Amino acid sequence: MKILVLNSGSSSIKFQLLDTAERKVMCKGLVERVGLADAIFNYQPAGGDKSKEVLPIPDHLAGIKLILDTLTSPGRGVIASLAELAAVGHRIVHGGEKIQHSVLLCEESLRLIDECTPLAPLHNPANLMGVHAIQKLLPDVPNVGVFDTAFHATMPKPAYVYALDYSYYEKHGIRRFGFHGTSHQYVAMRAAEILGVRLDDFNCITCHLGNGVSLTAVRGGKSVDTTLGFGTCCGVPMGTRCGDVDPAVLMHLIDELGMTSRQVCDLMYKGSGLKGISGVSHDMRDVEEAAAKGHERAELALEIFAHAARKHIAALATNLGDRIDAVIFTAGIGENGVEIRERICQGLGFMGVRIDPERNKVRGKEAVVSPEGAPVKVMVVPTNEELMIALDTEAIVKASRA
Ligand code: AMP
Known about the structure:
36% of the residues lie in helices and 20% in strands. By secondary structure, it is of the alpha/beta class. Adenosine monophosphate (AMP) binds next to helix 10 and helix 12.
């Protein structure tokens, strides 16, 4: 099936056209600065040259019309007619407790997504703009929503209910949701394929280490615990986010230092993590470079990052029953960070997690980096959220026709 995958943000639209039969990208691109007179349209057909155009794109409807026109345009296009599109798969950030798996988007499911807006105020409305644009431009093509939170819907209650007064869960829906679900799902599935084992008999920890970071315990192919929670600031420190901090610190910042909740929020989300500790950058490459030159706080930032990741890997492993088969690294840092992978795994030998330094010299490619014959495979698996969205979309469309 040919499936268009859209990731509509507030001012950007990322897209890929995929052929699911061959798991191949036919073309991809990004519309940036939507809403402005000097918006940017980046486009690349498979095997072809990248192009970049600056032009006015007043809204999401205009951006998506440009994408659809390009798909069929003579010379640059990759399909003869839009009738070839079997479906559009939309990345939707938050389904809350209302939508816990990928769905065909209809009036009712769109209403539920809208109701989840308070949980993802920046993302869900932008995601919906993409859906509405497709409904207008391609009224006969089915739309499927694939949710960042959905993969974690299989977590058991003890993993997702916070030990606050229970009424806050019951009355206000305060709970752990987890994020990056599509990425965790994809790399777990792909790792099982690479190892030639059945996903429903595969236990692993998936480590999505990018600008955002989350780790997930995947038991028999299903998420059973994860480090991100109600929001996206807990667990392991990130580029600019602090990760786990004792809530008493936040109360102290408000009550004793007189900070407003907005200032605390900015500190936690924008001024912390690698950037806050190192004082150098939020970018792992810059922090590693500074640390290599002897910058003490950059070195401390790396150690704090590795310490937290290592601790969460070990903690999450307690959810896997009596067997851990693999630890999988993905996203920008996980796929490329040779040194940081090694730092994280140092100290996990007690649970059979070891890295072979020679095999670990790999960036952005699928690889097993643990020693030959090691009981726990340490793997690098580049994430592919677009493919996962396309595969889920295909499955939903096929089921709806059955
Ligand atoms: P993502 O959010 O998945 O795009 O990941 C972004 C993060 O990946 C940034 O912190 C980058 O510094 C990091 N990254 C990209 N390439 C490398 C590399 N070669 N070594 C270490 N970190 C990298």
